[in-house]
Amino acid sequence: MVSDPPYGIAYAKGSGGKGKHTVRNTETIAGDAEPFDPAPWIDFADVILWGANHFAARLPHGRWIAWDKLAGMEAFDSFSDVEFAWHKGRGKDRIFSHLWKGICKASEKGIGKERYHPTQKPIALMEFCIRQCSDAGTIIDPYMGSGTTGVACANLGRAFIGCEIEPRYFDIACRRIEDAQRQGRLIA
C-alpha cells in the first residue's frame, strides 16, 4: 500500500483538548477535518503512508522517507521544505530529493502537466516509493486523489487498485491512469 491519506491537517486541538478547524490555504480535502487513524492499513505486508509525522504516535516502529522538496535550493516561502512518509518494517531511512515547490518543479512541467489536486505528489516520488516496496503483489492506494500512484504503477508495469471519495478527483485519476497505460513508458 502506498498512499497520501488525509491526515487531519485541517484539524487542530483547541484549548481543553477539543478540536477546532484551522484555516488552510488549499481547498478542503474529504476526511481532512479529523485526525487520521492508520490502524486499518498497518497490517498490510508493505505500507508507505505520507504525512505520517502528523500521526506518528499512532504508528508502530518503522522507517522513514524524507522528501526534500527544495532539492538543495534555499528556502523561499513559509511552507514546509520537506515531507515525511512512514514505511512499515525495519530498514534504512531514505531521502528523496526532487524540486516540487510552488511553481518550481523538476518534473511534470509544461502544457498538460497542471496540478490536479491540492496535495498532489510528483510521479517521480511515487515511482521511488513503489521501488521501495516488494516486487510482489498489487499496489493499493485507498486515497488516490488525482491518481499519481496509479500513474507511477502504469509507468513501472505494476498492478494498481485505487479508491477516491471525491467524484471529480476519481474522474481525473481514471483519465490520468488510462493515459499513462496507453502511452506506456517511453524511457526506462
Short description:
The protein has helices at 123-132, 148-156, 167-183; strands at residues 2-3, 11-13, 19-21, 48-50, 62-68, 82-88, 94-97, 100-101, 104-105, 139-141, 160-162. It has a five-stranded mixed β-sheet, with helices on one face. A two-stranded antiparallel ribbon has the order 2-3. A two-stranded antiparallel ribbon has the order 8-9. By secondary structure, the chain is α/β, with parallel strands linked by helices.
How would you describe the overall organization of this protein?
α2 links the parallel β10 and β11. 19% of the residues lie in helices and 21% in strands. The strands form 4 sheets. A 5-stranded mixed β-sheet has the order 1-4-6-5-7, with helices on one face. Strands 2-3 form a two-stranded antiparallel ribbon. It has a two-stranded antiparallel ribbon with strand order 8-9. It has helices at 123-132, 148-156, 167-183; strands at residues 2-3, 11-13, 19-21, 48-50, 62-68, 82-88, 94-97, 100-101, 104-105, 139-141, 160-162. The protein contains 3 helices and 11 strands; from the N terminus they run βββββββββαβαβα. The two termini are 23 Å apart. By secondary structure, it is α/β, with parallel strands linked by helices. The protein is globular and about 40 Å long. The longest helix is centred in the C-terminal third of the chain and has 17 residues, at 167-183. α1 crosses α2 and α2 runs parallel beside α3. It has one domain (2-183): Rossmann fold.
